[in-house]
């Protein structure tokens, strides 16, 4: 879980999540999950925040049943698809969910 201070300190990224979720037409549940996952896993390194943001949106959508492709999430967050691919499973498991076995 995260502290309110984390949300304030990362307001720019939370606003980006808002814009990305709107652009991807994600449900409020997916949006909320994406924000929670991001704020619970905010890295110290600013360079990594965009990657965690993208993976968080993908995880939020997946958990909420609003699946979007890794490519769509990557494009909306301005990262590579490989970035999303490499990070989403760890974030999913860190939040207490099991990765699907497609």
Features:
single chain, 102 residues, mainly alpha, Cyclin A, domain 1, 6 helices, 72% helix
Mean pLDDT: 92
Enumerate the spans where pLDDT stays under 50 for 5 or more consecutive residues: none
Percent strand equals under 5%
Helical proportion, percent range: over 70%
- Strand tally is 0
CATH architecture name: Orthogonal Bundle
Shape: globular
Most strands sheet:
none
Name of the CATH superfamily? Cyclin-like
Layout of strands and helices, then pairs:
Layout: H1 4-9, H2 11-23, H3 28-40, H4 46-64, H5 70-77, H6 81-94
Could you please describe the fold and organization of this structure?
- With 102 residues, the protein is mainly α.
- It has helices spanning 4-9, 11-23, 28-40, 46-64, 70-77, 81-94.
In short:
The protein has helices at residues 4-9, 11-23, 28-40, 46-64, 70-77, 81-94. By secondary structure, the chain is mostly helical. It has a single domain (4-92), classed as Cyclin A, domain 1.
